[in-house]
Amino acid sequence: MAATRPCLVALVMALAFLSLLEGAAAAVAGSTRRSAQRRRQVRSLLRRTNKAPLASIQSPDGDVIDCVHISKQPAFDHPFLKNHTILMRPSYHPGDLHGDSNTARRPITQTWHQNGNKCPENTIPIRRTKEEDILRASAVGRYGKKMPRSIQNLVSVNDLAPNATIGHQHAVASAQEDKYYGTNATINLWQPMAERANDFSLAQLWITGGAYNSNDLNTIEAGWQVSQKMYGDNNTRLFIYWTSDGYNKKGCYNLKCPGFIQINNQIAIGGSISPVSIYGGSQYDINIFIRKDPKNGNWWLQVDSYVLGYWPSSIFSYLADSASNITWGGEVYTHDAGQTSTQMGSGHFPEEGLGRAAYIKNIQVIDSSNNIKSPNGVHLIAKQPNCYNVQSSNNSDWGTYIYYGGAGGKNPNCP
């Protein structure tokens, strides 16, 4: 009997070891299946996103710019746009912009222009999506998308609940006194430092309709951003965004999903912008003008003198009619909601002024009478002004303008 006991113990241990091996093998098999499924999803998304180019341009920053026939761009994968007739110009212009800036300013330049400043006629430049771009996303289905509720409750300072925009911080000016049909603004270009790979920093304008905390929020957005997670580098890039369901399933950055229709063959949305401003030195900016065409309801985008294209009214609900709010300013985001030292704007606070703090100037709106004018009732929103802040004023040269930005956690008074 005593001799049998060690054998039983050995048998139990052997069975336990075999069970562990089977569990480990099952885990490896499950991981392999998930990995294979993810690879299939990535390849499928790449096929849908990257349209066959007629020519390609290698950019010095590592981007590949594909020149895709205008009729083959991603927009026409949208079910509402299958039989859409491409429009090559808006039906009207609402009048002179503040300071007639589009005729006198230095036009936007992008890094890829060093190897070719435009695509052939009847094509548009599209930044090629790479496998590693998609793999940096939290999930394949979230590639090219913002997090849901990313700007909810940006209506007034009092509405900003402590956890309303977890991970997001804003320093913005906002107007919501009328029905709006467009906006114009000149946005200072910077290359802020992002502390962590998942952080981003941007300057933009938001045109919105519907409630910020609802699933049917509509937005049209445009500006510049620095996002290593999105692009794989820390370059300053031109971007656009739209959503019609509160950032859930509908909408995306740039041309990463069907929606925005591009007509311009010289500017790549998502492409790097160069040069950018230097602290205490040369300053650079871009003018962004978005207006709703009263004839067909489409929202047209113009950057400096380039009319880039339009968001068809059919992809929206609220914005098919008009906007109820327009916002201008900066935003930073950190994945784990902890306070980082990611810079907003220049990384310096508004009171430092021209050449040191980031600005947005010549801020205008198009009202219900299709008049372009300075906005009324502008109010400022900065949830943590010791981290990131905003100031506004107006004068004859800059019209309505703001300075905004900050250093985040590098400021000892930032909580």
From TrEMBL:
Matching PROSITE patterns: NEPROSIN_PEP_CD
Keyword Ribonucleoprotein found: no
Key words, A-Z: Signal
UniProt domain Neprosin PEP catalytic: residue ranges: 162-415
Protein name in UniProt: Neprosin PEP catalytic domain-containing protein
Organism this protein belongs to: Panicum hallii
Nucleus listed as a keyword: no
Signal peptide (residue range): 1-26
